[in-house]
Design goal:
The complex is a heterodimer of chains A (215) and B (163). Chain A is built from eleven helices and no strands. Chain A is mainly α. In chain A, 27% of the residues are buried. Chain B is an all-alpha fold. Among the domains of chain B are: 1-58; 103-138. The N and C termini of chain B lie far apart (75 Å). Chain A: It is a multi-pass membrane protein. Chain A: Keywords: Cell membrane, Membrane, Transmembrane, Transmembrane helix, Transport.
Amino acid sequence: MNGQQGIPLVSVDDGMGLTIALAIGAVFLAAVVIAIVRIVRGPSILDRMIATDAFLATIMCGLGGVAAFSARTDLFPVMLVISMFGFVGAVGVSRYVSRADLRTTSRFRRMERGQGSGTIGTADGYEPSVPELAIELQEARRMDPERAARMETAGTDLDTSSMRVNADPDDVSQGHATPSEGNLDADPAAEAIADSDTQSSDAEHRDDETRGGQS
Amino acid sequence: MTLDIVSTIFIAGAALLSLAAAIGSVRFPDLLSRMHASSKPQLFGLVMVMFAVALQIQQWGPVTTMLVIVLFQLFTVPVAAHMIGRAGYRTKHLRRSMLYRDELDDAVARAQARDVHAREAAEREQAAQAARDKDQETADQSGGSASGEDRTPNDHDEPDTGR
């Protein structure tokens, strides 16, 4: 029992129909193999997740093709489960991806060459955006010298703009303004106390200390 | 016969879309462009396959099941793409030199500037509050014990150093 619900489009004794069905199946197979290539190679885990989505979509389309060609209906629950797995996997992976997963493949290659420990998630494995830019610049030099020159002139700008996304908010507050000195100057009450009361000079000193530690 | 040909063409179109998605996800250089390439067969290919199945099995049961699958994909594919793109932006999985313009960058800069302003205002208010308390204390016990004078500014300084 395979849920047969009608006349199949392709039967074994139908030569031309079978040829067409096999050709379409070969195209699906090629798509699956190429998606697996990206899953294996993909430099980051998000690339792998995208390729996995494409892989699962291809599998679903292939199952739908089988269902249409052989007129069987028992493959639809399988398609539903596959689509659900694809969604849950994509959301889970993108929810828990971290910066340590950046370019894991290149890290493994370096580990094969004996440079670097290859550990993931440690300070050793953390790669800031500067090497990323260097790799890109290298590629651009190989492909397009004009674009490489443009990137080199705009390199620092690119780098800071990419650094600003994940920067610590406290670091950003340092770069933007000087709140500590402005605060002390703009606070007449504190200055008045500091002038009048000799006892509170100690407190003012401590205040300066904390502000210095903060800025 | 005509229906058979049409459904075969639909399935062949879905197969070609899948192949294009796979080739695009291998050939394209960036996370976002790979996402653009690989999201084509997830909906359009599935809809084509559904048309082929509906032309081939002309009954309501399989067609409604197929419709449920397509609706599920229709709801979940944008969510998954949004999550992946968001995670890629936050973890800097994108090449900035390949972007013509980064609209999210303006929003991020604006939000950070707003945070900085809010923090400055909070600090100013806190300093004013500390000064007011200190003022009141000196007015209450002028020339009081040194230990009491020492401890009160410490209490007010604690939140500052903690940050």
